[in-house]
Specification:
With 124 residues, the protein is an all-alpha fold. It is built from seven helices and no strands. Helix content is 47%, strand content 0%.
Length: 124
Amino acid sequence: MVRVLSLGLVLTLAGIGGASAAGDPVNGEKIFKRCQACHVINQEQNRVGPYLHGVIGRHAGMATGFNYSPAMKAHDVVWDDAELDKYLADPKGSVPGNKMAFPGLKKPEERADVIAYLKQASAQ
């Protein structure tokens, strides 16, 4: 029992296991640069895409003032880590008929990092 707890503590302190699953917001900010042509995170301002400030916990298709596709308006979810992960992996496959042209983030760790960044930036 003590050995298992010690190994868990070592892995956590080394950034392996639970820490990596939560995502790295610093790396997520770097990855988010791919999204900045269409989205902003630090304010409620729409561009080609809706603003993402406060996206976690918001119903899909509900950013104030954005003209969503009928597909996104009908997508009945509240954005949480799991829903964002699924959407960011394959936007067109996750919500067929949505307007987002971005092909998605194929690496799970990149998606986790972007989600961590969205959380952190929305809290500021």
